[in-house]
Amino acid sequence: MIYGWILFIVVVLGGGMMLYAMSKKRALSDIDRDKVRSAWANIELLVEGDNDSEWVKAVFEADKLLDFALVQRRVAGESLGERLKNAKPLFGNIDAAWQAHKVRNELAHNMNAQLTRPQIERAMDNFKRALRRLGAL
């Protein structure tokens, strides 16, 4: 009978530890963090200029970088939108990430979309805030 209780306790504790480990999202490795930082430095160079097409490229690159960080954190989802929905626990407030991604979607789906410098700067600030919250910057 005592062996039954010991087995029960081991199974319960082991199962609990497995569930806890599975629920934790993986942190970015140092190599991944360095990749993100290097890519972000290139993105900031694109935004510094006055070329609208470079601003658009910067938004797309920042969006891809956010997606990369979420994938590396093993957030489930087939698209960045799905991953953002599943990443709510990783963010105190996910609004910045959503606002940044919406700017990308506007550029991708509206061929007449044009953004002003303040709009681009706001989007870049939102991407940066999201990447910091994920521990990528």
Produce a short descriptive summary.
This is DUF4145 domain-containing protein. This protein has about 140 residues and is mainly α.
How would you describe the overall organization of this protein?
This is DUF4145 domain-containing protein. It comes from candidate division Kazan bacterium GW2011_GWA1_50_15. Keywords: Membrane, Transmembrane, Transmembrane helix. The longest helix has 22 residues. The protein contains six helices and no strands. The protein has 137 residues and is an all-alpha fold. The protein has a single domain, classed as Four Helix Bundle (Hemerythrin (Met), subunit A) (Up-down Bundle). The protein starts with a helix and ends with a helix. Helix 5 packs across helix 6. Helices cover 74% and strands 0% of the residues.
